[in-house]
Amino acid sequence: MIQNHDTGAMASDGSLGQPSLIRIPIDVIPVDANGVITKRGWTFQGCFIHSLNSPKFSQTSGEAYEAAVGLKFMKRVIRT
Predict the structure, then answer these.
(1) For residues 76-80, average pLDDT
(2) Rounded CA gap, 42 and 58, in Å?
(3) Cα–Cα distance measured from residue 65 to residue 58, given in angstroms and rounded to the nearest whole number
(4) In the chain, where are the structural domains located?
(5) Where would I find the H helices in the chain?
(6) pLDDT tens, 8-18?
(7) How far apart are CA 62 and CA 17, in angstroms?
(8) How far apart are CA 40 and CA 53, in angstroms?
(9) What is this structure's pTM?
(10) In this prediction, what percent of the chain has a pLDDT beyond 70?
(11) β-bridge mates for residue 28, sequence order
């Protein structure tokens, strides 16, 4: 089950025996300033967005968009 924190409504996020359409795996791979992988990292399984702040940007400077995203997950495993 997944819940909308604003409304309190709850619903299933998938069908019985079928993978969820909104939960995904996310790999986190630590790298140094030169782009060299420093550790194996982790795979977060069953991830979904928990919170998402409005994007911030400046139309005059041309800087990249910035948004803060909070994720929740079902399981964390070390990447092989």
Answers:
(1) 91
(2) 34
(3) 8
(4) 17-78
(5) none
(6) 888 777 777 77
(7) 46
(8) 30
(9) 0.61
(10) 100
(11) 42
